[in-house]
Structures are given as structure tokens and as C-alpha cells.
Amino acid sequence: MSSRLIGVGVGPGDPELVTVKGVNALRAADVVVVPVMDSGERGRAEATVAHYVSAEKIVRVVFALNERSDRARREAAWDAAGTRVAELLGRHGSVAFATIGDPNVYSTFTYLAQTIAELVPGVVVETVPGITAMQDLAARSGAVLTEGTEPLTLVPVTAGAAVLEEALAGPGTVVAYKFGRQAAEVAGALARAGRLEDAVWGSALGLPEESVRPAAELDGSPLPYLSTLIAPPRRDGGRGGKL
Description:
- By secondary structure, the chain is an alpha/beta fold.
- Helix content is about 30%, strand content about 20%.
- It is built from seven helices and ten strands.
């Protein structure tokens, strides 16, 4: 029987936002892998998973989660993590990988799955979708992500503030991920695009240190790395105006 690797989205941090299917997948797996930057830390994915499975089932695997400048170091870290997960698959029939948000949206699981497909011939790779930070922030702030025919654009600000500027110049709502370290540039881009007034940002959603604030209050101070921004378009014409 083929071994199975299941990427399970566990949401942005609130344990209550893990889907029923996600909980079932975590409990059914022989082992649950959680990504960490250091083997001694307890990451957000692990903190969420711990509400549903015993500590004995959880295995921390170190990933270069924030490594962008040194490609060789990043590749080596991915290879090492893949080898570790391949070893677990050799001893267990099913391994779940818990990832914050959704496993198919800017997730480390994508790179792991590619590595495992080469290391473990015949492995079955599956994913269980998870609630994303933009959905949670919209719910907590009251922001509406889309109406009628509006497009929705999602950009990682780790690609540079210019990517956000280009998106803000277009129609529809713009969502920015991982913008905390470039908060000053983001505030400037919103102001130039005329979108500062209606935009909102949030971090640590569903956790005790949660912060959900109007983007107009951005003062240029650095924010948590995993901060999320929602910048809706101007909506005129009343109810159904975007249909």
C-alpha cells in the first residue's frame, strides 16, 4: 500500500477555525509534522494542532521558513526537511503536515510535497483546505473581500512594495500578506492609491496578542512578519452597485 502525505491547513491561529475534515485528517494520521524554524520552538501550527492530537504524535521538523536571500542555504534546509519526512513515511503509513492557513496558498507544504515526490516513489499526496488569514481578518474586521464582479488580488509583500503598488492601481480588493517589515512602504502605497481610509490590517489573528486595526493608524513602525492587509476598492452606488 502506498504511503500518504497529507497537507492539512489549520487556519491562521484560532483552534476553532480548523475544519472538521482537517481535525479528522490530523487524528487519522500516524504522525503529524509541524514546521518550525528551530527545533526548540513551538510554532503557530503546533500550538493549533495540540488542541486536537496528543503531543506524542507531533514531530517538529526544521524548515528555512523565512530564508530568502541565501538560496543554497534554503535548498539545503528543504532537502534536509524532506529527508526527515521521507524517513517518517518509511516507518508510518500516513503522515500529516500541518500548515497555517491553507496548504495551497503560499505554504511550505508545496515545496515539501515536491521534494517527497522525488524521494518516495509512489507516495500519495493529498491536501485538506484551511481557512486563510484574509478570510479571518475580513470576519474580524467587517471588511468585505469582494462584491459583484470585483476581482480579488493577493500579493506577498516579500516580493517588494512595487508589487503592491501595481496591484493597488488595479480594480477590486487587494490583500497583502507578510507586509510587517515593510509597514512604512505599505502605508505610503495605500495613501498614494487613495485606499488608506478603508483599509485594515491584522496580526496574530485568534491569539491572545491579536491586533486588528485601521490601516490609517500605520505609523511606519515595524509590525509582526505575518501581518495581513485588506484594501477594498471604493464602492459607490449603494447596494448591488458592483453587480
